Amino acid sequence: MIQIDDVVISLDVLRDKFICDLGVCKGACCIEGDAGAPVENDEVSKLQEVLPIVWDDLSDSAKAVIDQQGVVYTDEDGDIVTSIVNGKDCVFTCYDQSGLCSCAIEKAHREGKTDFYKPISCHLYPIRVGNYGTYKSVGYHRWEICKAAVLLGEKENLPIYKFLKTPLIRKFGEAWYEQLEVAVEELKNAGYIPQK
Ligand code: SF4
Prior knowledge:
Elements: E1 2-4, E2 7-9, H1 11-15, H2 22-25, H3 44-54, H4 60-69, E3 72-74, E4 80-82, E5 84-85, E6 89-90, E7 93-95, E8 101-103, H5 104-110, H6 120-124, E9 127-132, E10 135-140, H7 147-156, H8 160-163, H9 165-172, H10 174-189
Parallel strand pairs: 2-10
Antiparallel strand pairs: 1-2, 3-4, 5-6, 7-8, 9-10
Helix pairs in contact: 9-10
The structure holds iron/sulfur cluster.
């Protein structure tokens, strides 16, 4: 592990390779798992604001869940997460004509309808950020449904922290990411992670 400011980073994030391969996984992370996506406190109001914009893209069952319990709920660990349908599908999931799952919020953002891209936890996946008092952890969450992303990342030799440069900067800032890049070079020179 290394530490930059108050963030402790797992070496896996710097060493392991990953590129989402949507043609294979079909965006399964939106509909698999047994809880919604983690939502930060200040993102709850953003989800509520974007709801009328994305409403027509949501499934009838998602609309029913939102009508009943809202856009988020508190999971077994006490974390705020997006509401889900049938115990697994995020309510903000939408589908394109080829059956690919995607995020209705991200779709609206790409169409210029909202400034909100999507919750930072979704943007950062497969990185998960943990909160421990004044410290945060940045770790790699391995999931079977992403195995094609591991293969593609290895083929293209792209480490996770580079694949997720944009959301890491969104979360921790440009200066933090620049420090991370310097630290990676030092770790390579010291032999803790491969040169390539
Ligand atoms: S995080 Fe995993 S399931 Fe989600 S789009 Fe990427 S590879 Fe696919």
